[in-house]
């Protein structure tokens, strides 16, 4: 069992780590790829990555998976669709709904985006060895797994609030 002081130190480190998301967005905005091939906002890259990993999904499922409002997903999907990175088609189980899936162009742009981000990380961490970075990655994965074990499943916005 760790001490409260150690847990507090870890909580502060986690807050600092979460702040990396903001820094990553700033880096993506400040340093686009030289060829301009994959200018993609991290939130849209996350949505594309989810669709690549999980396949076609309804907007509501995407919103729940990313824990954002349906209107946010709708705007992101519209932007990705306009860029030709995703496509919608009627859901065969419910013609009133649509499924969103990644296009081949979307897969290519996501791959280029991920490659560019990996190059940025490699540059930022050039002073570290592969072994050091591997240990850091392993520790981060372990921390995420530990936190998932104690975190309740996210509620969908349509779910009733829990009783108190």
Features:
single chain; 164 residues; mainly alpha; Arc Repressor Mutant, subunit A; two-stranded antiparallel ribbon; 6 helices
Q: How is the biggest beta sheet arranged?
A: 2 strands, antiparallel
Distance between the termini: 29 Å
CATH topology: Arc Repressor Mutant, subunit A
Proportion of residues in β-strands: 5-15%
Radius of gyration: 19 Å
Give a summary of the structure in a few sentences.
This protein is mainly alpha-helical and 164 residues long. 63% of the residues lie in helices and 9% in strands. It has 6 helices and 2 strands.
Task: Draw up the topology in text.
Elements lengths: L3 H27 L11 H13 L4 H8 L3 H13 L3 E6 L2 E9 L1 H21 L5 H21 L14
Antiparallel strand pairs: 1-2
Helix pairs in contact: 2-5, 3-4
What does this structure look like?
Keywords: DNA-binding, Transcription, Transcription regulation. One of its GO terms (molecular function) is DNA-binding transcription factor activity. It contains six helices and two strands, in the order ααααββαα. It has about 160 residues and is mostly helical. The chain has a single domain (about 15-150), classed as Arc Repressor Mutant, subunit A (Orthogonal Bundle), CATH 1.10.10. A two-stranded antiparallel sheet has the order 1-2. α3 crosses α4. The longest helix is centred in the first third of the chain and has 27 residues, at about 5-30.
């Amino acid at each position: 069992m760790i001490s409260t002081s150690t847990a507090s130190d870890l909580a502060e480190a986690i807050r600092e780590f979460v702040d990396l998301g903001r820094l990553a967005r700033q880096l993506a905005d400040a340093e686009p790829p030289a060829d301009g091939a994959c200018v993609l906002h991290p939130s849209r890259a996350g949505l594309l990555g989810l669709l690549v990993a999980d396949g076609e999904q309804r907007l509501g499922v995407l919103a729940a998976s990313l824990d954002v409002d349906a209107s946010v997903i709708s705007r992101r999907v519209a932007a990705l669709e306009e860029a030709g990175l995703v496509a919608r088609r009627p859901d065969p189980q419910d013609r009133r709904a649509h499924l969103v899936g990644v296009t081949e162009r979307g897969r290519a742009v996501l791959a280029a985006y991920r490659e560019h981000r990996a190059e940025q990380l490699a540059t930022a961490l050039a002073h570290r060895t592969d072994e050091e970075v591997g240990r850091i990655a392993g520790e981060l994965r372990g921390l995420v797994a530990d936190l998932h074990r104690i975190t309740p499943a996210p509620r969908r916005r349509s779910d009733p609030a829990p009783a108190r």
